[in-house]
Give the backbone structure.
Amino acid sequence: MTRHLLRALVLSATLGAPLAAQRGGAAPRAPLAWHLTPATLATSCRDAIARTKHTVAALAAKPNAPGALVRIEHAMAGLQNALGGHVFLYNVSTDAAMRDSSTACSQWLTNFGVEIGADPGVYAAAVRALRNSAAPAADRQLATVYAEQGRHNGAALDSALRAKTTAMLQRLADVQRDFNVALGADSTHITLSKLETEGLSPQFLAGLKPEGERFAARVDESTIGDFLRTERYSDARRRFSVAYFNRGGQANIARLKQAVALRDSLAHLFGFPTWAAYQLDVKMAKTPERVLAFLDKVDGGLLPKARDELARLTPLAEADMLRAPLNAWDISFYNEQLRRTRYAVDAEQVRQYFPVDHVVRQVMNIYQELLGVRFVEVTPADAWAPDVRQFTVKNAAGGATLGVLYLDLFPRENKYGHFADFSLTNTRRLAGGTRDVPYNAIVGNWPKGAPGKPATLTHGDVVTFFHEFGHAMSAMCDASPYVTTGSGYLRQDFVEALSQMLENWMWQPAILARVTKHVATGEPMPDSLAQRIIALKHFTDGVNWTGQAFYASYDMTLHASGPDVDPSALWPALQKKLTVNPPIPGTIPAAGFGHLMSGYDAGYYGYLWSLVYAQDLFTRFEKEGVMNPKTGRAYRDIILAPGAVEEPDVLLRRFLGRSLSYDAFFRNVGIAAP
């Protein structure tokens, strides 16, 4: 669950397709990247970069000219909003040649972004703008971000060293992109006997392909949860888990090692002891030591609960002749058995209440009421694949167009393999009071329905969708004047808070009644079942949150240990220390840990860190009502509309009327407050 910004390493947030300026309720002009050929996409990409390079060079040559930084910002934003659709396509296009062309465009754009981030003239313009204490808050924040990025990309270094770091940053971007392209193209599968398919969900069975007397099962994000919950045979669960945690292969481990070494060298050249210290310098947490202390508290506080959660599964496993301690691939299955037997919650029964079309419609209705927006479906959709849906997002009051939202929710070959919100373009204020409108795409991998049956979701799937929808709404409600002061530039250890807070809606009985509709009867979920689901909210908090603390600690340790750290050896060493999940022999999970190569390097801790802000923000909705339109409007105006113009603590204080408290976070994760 993440907001995927498609951002270059530095100032260019590779985000866009050409947009007409919008005023009032005018219909936005759709991005046209989907209609290009691979050759014309490449040509338009090169030409747009060349034009912008010429423009920015002329402006950077006169950094002391009044308004130089703002003009540079508009030039870069125009490029971002011209090529975001181009570089997005390598994640989702059904055409291999188009994916290749998109990948090349992404490389060119990233390389140019690195050059701009390291440009002494751009940096000088930012420093000059910072001296203007009378400038509006947005202009001061714009200068702050450019100065931070310039400092972090070598703009203050001498020319020889700057050329070296620029080349290294460009190489790092290439390695990261190659990692994710390889992961997206991974077609891993295992084969199952007929006996091993008995008991699997109808939705999973629909995706199996016959191979002689056996059946091929796709191994990816869209299938692992369903399979491990319902597969009756431990050896089949083992084979699936081994295959899943080897996705990306040794080639991706080699790329990760290369990235870690490049990052460490860059950190030293920029004057930082480690890449972790370099990254945290511009985040709320500030130091690796502070992050690790926070993670240790979370992990230490929850390990006893995790051990208890595992122990309660032992009798169920022993009845199946499995000995303690349980293997990692068996935990989901026996948790599901316990839910069914002790709590009378059957995941397959639950998903019958979450048909996809109804969930999507009701989630939109909730956001419409809460934030004062309206969704109008565009048919036929102008998109990159046949099953993508397109919506125009309008302001409920007055009908002004706020943006465009795409939903690409089902798996395809060579498609981005996780669930995320992609910002294709960002909003910004133009001359005369008009705005560019944002284009966002929520990209997911829900399993398709069995033949003749609607696709249905787990409750966890719905929570994830509501979360990602929150990211998209942050973009739609952004009213900041510049791309670089907008929602795409929130501090990374705060950006998840806005969507994490909204996950709380999917644990409210009244909301569950709205988003559920039984596929056979059309009835909403009974309150008795909803209450049992809610009672299970913290059912596996120990295992889940120690797992999150482990991922974050792995990331932070990997980037604070120098260039010679072994990613594959570090994983089981930390996993044994920080979790109750035993490592799976013969696997290389880091090869598929996409966050490490997608902008969350030395940043994964942000999911836990931002949860502190999320749960504290939610306390106002708890008091005033989760569907209170006045509170929702205050949230939109105070938290979402400013984008990144002001720091997170300022926004939170304005919304809550007080400073940050950890109390709600500790209650949520089950830790005694200090």
Summary: The chain has 28 helices and eleven strands. The domain at 2-184 is CATH 1.20.1050.40 (Glutathione S-transferase Yfyf (Class Pi); Chain A, domain 2).
